[in-house]
Fold:
Amino acid sequence: MPVTISRDVLFQYYRFSLYNSPFDAHDEGCAIDLYPDGERAPSPVAGEVVDTKTVQAPPKAYAAEHDHLILIDTGDTVARLLHVNPAVEPGETVAVGDDLGALVRAGFFAPWVPNHIHLGFRDPDANPYRASGSLPVDVAADVTPVFWDGTGTVVDGGETWARLDEPAHPAPGDSFVGIANDVGGDGSGVLDGGLPHYSGGGLLGDDNAGAAALAGQHVGTADGRTVAWDDVAVLANGEPITGIALFCGRERFGAKLVGEDIDLARGDEVRVTIERGAAGDDST
Structure:
């Protein structure tokens, strides 16, 4: 049975994603990344801290040398939380919203990924230190599909990413939205994941769509809510980029374009096209 994250818990964060990661724990939506404002990590779960552990992170110039694992016994499951330098100790009891510690910019992140909490769940009798084999995660919040035609103006960005003003959130702060699955133009759920730079993605809100499409282009085949991306390449104004980061957000929404060599500045008008073949590397 999936572990469901309540609406109240989700509203502690401005963004979440079940599939926008290259790591096995996110396969078939068996983990969720939660993005809080600020530098601290409000707890998404209540229970007793079982253990904390420091681990070596992949070496990246922009990232910390170490990451951290926090294990919390919720009663029904053991929650696994990563990317937080723990301010809690084994034996302590935490409530939802309690401060778990400072967010860590880990070497597990691609350079365009903001700081976040990784959350997964294990059965009580399973090895809690392992990520593979975690329980599926679901969300108890409606996510509104917003259609996108592939165009927009850059309103924010950095060396490896650019966020467009489209598709716009109709009521920022009030609800979560995601880029619509453009199959038949009927908004069959929202797309989640890294297209195409991570090996697969998700389709939230419609387990029966069977296909995924974006900006008028077929981009994948859906089996339930899990999507296998087609062999596609993403271009911005005709230039190849790594891809599109797809997620559910309630603030600061808009298509997020990512890539090591992205060359887009604020105010640039952008048209994104998706072509068959030459899909990106899913290793970062």
About this structure: The helical segments are 7-10. The chain has one helix and 27 strands. The longest strand covers residues 47-56.
